[in-house]
Amino acid sequence: MPAVGNDIVNLGDPANRRKSMDRRFLNRVFTDSEQALIAGAGNPERLLWSLWSAKEAAYKVASKLAGPVSSAPRRYVFCPLFDHSFLKQSLLSGRVDTPVLPVFVRFALGCDFIHCLCADEASVLDRIHAGISRLEDRGSRKDNQAYESWAARQAAREAIAAILHLAPEDVEIRREGADAVNPPVAYCRGQRLAVDLSLSHDFPWVGYAFIV
Predict the structure, then answer these.
(1) Which of 24, 50, 134, 207 could potentially form a cystine with 8 if both were Cys, beta carbons 3.0 to 4.6 Å apart?
(2) Distance between CA atoms of 185 and 192, rounded to whole angstroms?
(3) Could you report the per-residue pLDDT of 92-143, keeping only the tens digit for each?
(4) CB count, 10 Å around CB of 162?
(5) What pTM was computed for the model?
């Protein structure tokens, strides 16, 4: 089965602003070629977080296919598949060369979010079922973090149930093993479904992507 990943970034978070001016951050996360793309972009902040989300989503795919793999962001190199005019599009795509294999990414850009989809084959991107939701603020950061995780699983289980003509209450999403960073897995009444799933959240946004 193909492997998919996704990542979402909240552009409205004050901590995510003006990072294109942070030289230490740029040097830690981005290669020289990526930094040149960011510097030449009409909106460098948006492109910076697009590349960040591509690296994060690509890591999810690489770790599914190859097991333990480096998560160092500079080892995930973004290569645009279009000329520089792609930076002005509302939907853009590219390839990320990971430490183990190339993967392919596509971005959906909103006014205050970036949602990146990723797969190990370019053709798989057209077959991914994906969605995002905006959550209401519940006050404390702790409450919001628990809410994000629950909301991402809930949105994914309802979407999977709809695609597979199942009752949502029969679909369960859990992580295998004791490691909380293991990828999420979908089950129906105790039987593992033929679904590859990825979840992400960056309050107030949650996102999911899966393929059946």
Answers:
(1) 207
(2) 7
(3) 789 999 999 999 999 988 889 999 999 999 999 999 999 999 998 766 666 6
(4) 12
(5) 0.91
